[in-house]
Write a structure and sequence with these properties.
CATH architecture of the largest domain: Beta Barrel
Radius of gyration: 18 Å
Helix content: 10-25%
Structural class: mainly beta
Number of domains: 2
Strand content: 25-35%
Number of helices: 2
Number of strands: 13
CATH superfamily of the largest domain: RNA polymerase II/Efflux pump adaptor protein, barrel-sandwich hybrid domain
CATH topology of the largest domain: OB fold (Dihydrolipoamide Acetyltransferase, E2P)
Distance between the termini: 46 Å
Order of helices and strands: HEEEEEHEEEEEEEE
Largest sheet: 5 strands, antiparallel
Oligomer: single chain
Length: 176
């Protein structure tokens, strides 16, 4: 690893909620520990292992799924007070959706390659374990699997856009 890659790695870790990070690449080995997020997990932390077994970390919430959406309008840019009479209905509707969130910082991709169709699109029915997207982090392409079954209601992120840890990627209707 060169200096630039190490600096980028340190920034990614400081921006995430990782409390521990270990990486081994040939003879190079790095271990970083921080206590800034250890208080968040009451039931202990979980280990995230990326494909290839190169990276593992300890975080309070590793599944990438949150239920149900708690923000009014689920990020549509409207607040409940400024949206007229329709805002209350939309708030009630969005509160029943589950969120698939990014389990890491990286770049969001809807398809396996630019010439391939997206893994899923609005209206598709998905099952638990289906691959819904890819998040690239540190030149590793991580397939993100759904932890829930349901119908895709909304894609919350643009293709090839940077995403943060815990950012909502999709809204899912579990009854759809």
């Amino acid at each position: 690893m060169n200096y630039k890659e190490i600096t980028e790695l340190l920034k990614l870790i400081s921006d995430s909620q990782l409390s521990e990070f270990k990486m081994k690449d040939g003879d190079f080995e790095i271990s970083i520990k921080t206590d800034k997020y250890q208080k968040k997990s009451k039931e202990g932390s979980q280990i995230i292992q990326l494909p290839g077994g190169q990276v593992a970390g300890s975080v309070g919430e590793a599944t990438g799924v949150q239920a149900p959406a708690s923000t009014p309008g689920a990020g549509n840019g409207k607040d409940a007070a400024g949206s007229g009479g329709a805002g209350g209905d939309e708030e009630d509707e969005s509160s029943r959706y589950l969120e698939i969130k990014s389990p890491m910082v990286g770049t969001f991709y809807r398809s396996p390659s630019p010439d391939k169709p997206p893994f899923i699109k609005v209206g598709d029915r998905i099952e638990k374990g289906d691959v819904v997207c890819i998040v690239e982090a540190m030149k590793l392409f991580n397939e993100i699997e759904s932890e829930v079954s349901g119908k895709i209601v909304k894609v919350m992120t643009e293709d090839a856009a940077p995403v943060e840890y815990d950012q909502v990627l999709f809204l899912i209707d579990p009854q759809g």
